[in-house]
Amino acid sequence: MQPFRRHRGVVAPLHRENIDTDQIIPKQHLKRIERTGFGAHLFSDWRYHPDGTPRPDFVLNQEHGRTASILVAGKNFGCGSSREHAAWALSDFGFRAVIAPSYADIFRNNAGNNGLLVIEAPETVVQRIADHAHHKRPYELTIDLEAMTIADEFGLVASFKVEPFRRHRLLHGLDEIGMTLMHEAAIASFEKRRETA
Amino acid sequence: MQKLKTLFDRVWDAHVVLEREGEPTLLYIDLHLVHEVTSPQAFEGLRLAHRKVRRPDLTFATVDHNIPTTSDERFHIKDQIAAQQITALRRNCESAGIPLFDVGSGRQGIVHVIGPELGLTQPGTTVVCGDSHTSTHGAFGALAFGIGTSEVEHVLATQCVAQTKPRTMRISVSGTLPEGTCAKDLILDIIRQVGTDGGTGHVIEYAGEAVRALTMEERMTLCNMSIECGARAGMVAPDETTFAYLKGRPYAPRGPAWDQALERWRSLPGDEGARFDRQLSVDGARLEPVVTWGTNPGMSAPVTARIPKPDDGRSASERAAIRAALEYMGLQAGTRIEDIALDRVFIGSCTNGRLEDLRVAAKVIRGHKIHSDVTVLVVPGSEAVKQAAEREGLDRIFREAGAEWREPGCSMCLGMNPDILAPRQRCASTSNRNFEGRQGREGRTHLVSPAVAAASAVAGHFVDVRGWHYKDS
Predict the structure, then answer these.
(1) CATH node for A6-196
(2) pLDDT per residue as tens digits for the range B308-360
(3) Do B51 and A50 touch (CB under 8 A)?
(4) Secondary structure letter of residue B102 according to DSSP
(5) Chain mean pLDDT for chain B
(6) HSE on the CB side for B104, CA within 13 Å?
(7) Would you say residue B2 lies in a domain?
(8) What residues of B are in contact with residue A102 (Cβ under 8 Å)?
């Protein structure tokens, strides 16, 4: 997993509530057996016409949207299906972080397992970032996971919280399975206890 | 004095492998269900890291999301990419020694239908699957939740998941559900009240006399859609209804082991007075048949109501969401829901594709003809459900009315197979999600109960099934 320490990048605003994983990666693109290649289909029903041509009014088709690496969105981002393809598609497109007021539980875990930082920010901060991203293009933010701050060049400085274990894993790009397997003895003794119970 | 425990506390505590300060808990998993769409990358990850499946004996697989529902194509899939996922699952199960309930085995079906019907899902167990509707299995008093593919890989390798302990919420439903309403209407009503994210971070326990009175299949419908209000899981305390359902199922304990299991299961319900982080009371006696009108499962109204106006929203973002939903759905504010005409009806899915659902729908349709403008797909949730329904002659009732009787799978619930809506087609669906494009790009999905779906198929528009003219014989 790619570590996340500090990142500066262009912000793409998609300020709607309840963006579900069916929108992030529609079902017709779930049939691959690899973890890669989903970026081209990210938000595909919103991003392309039925004939496959890009819709110019969609943010990721606009000049600064194409190179964006930070997505700002409304509350309950990533609700619905457990498909990790949603996190893969965001990462594969080039997103390193999402900023929203809240996230669905499964999406939050999936993002963490793919080095995608999800930042929970108050609605007022999200609104301010979304407004800037609309009006000051390209609008860039610097995210510092060590200091847990986001900042822009126009005086915005906001701190955020991430659970310590998530932060630790992201900072070091740690594989959760490897970490769990270090507790093999505890798992084996749990199994033994249950068999004899 | 010992701390009073909820049902959730008991199941959680019994599965803790390791608790670490500031880290998620390692929780042991009793049952891992696997399907073709969310598992190939997990098996690939294991191979790349030279890791093995730790407990193939606690892992069971089936094919459901991709599988076509016509009798010839399910054995000869035309979509080569879908076929590749199914081939990958067969190969992965064979090399890891994981039992696979494949097409034609008599046990294939939607993963959340077959787990319970095979007796794999048992009270007090932990169940995971790479599918958000895993919450279904909570109907048995199991702690069951959906996980992503990296977590699927984690469970395959370690038989554990790393989880932060969720908070608890109890939803008590009083009274008796009125004739013409069912668990589907109840959960849609609950989601509307709680909101699409009101349950985030929580495990819901459904309680109260209305829940006690539900059959196991209805409890599964209730728990199934817990995820649609953001909850991690839904649970119902096991009781005699649960035990009667499980007895004699292929994987249920037998002989002395059954008696021991019963003793264990009877001790699972929460202590009187145990604390929940949140409580909600619902008056079940006031329930009406519910229809969703928008693009998430929280956007719903009684079938007798009218489509809301954007101005009905309580905030600017809610008003914007209503406006966007009405535009996508092609609906005018103020329209009577019963005046909305339909193109398609889908009866099936892990929410409402079980035998009782099909019986209810068949009872409504019996002796009637499907409206000439409507195409109806009836898709049993599993091969076992299909066989049982055919033994009762339900297939004939549907066919004679003009509906299509299909083979088991997820079908039109998510349209990863050939069953999809054409753009702007309007569908009354017994499934669980009405998101934009869920059943096909630009498709318009309204979530309803099996009874409302069946009555609406006959009428050609939504119908208040409480006044239905049943032609019983």
Answers:
(1) 3.20.19.10
(2) 999 999 998 899 999 999 999 999 999 999 999 999 999 999 999 999 999 99
(3) no
(4) -
(5) 97
(6) 7
(7) no
(8) 197, 200
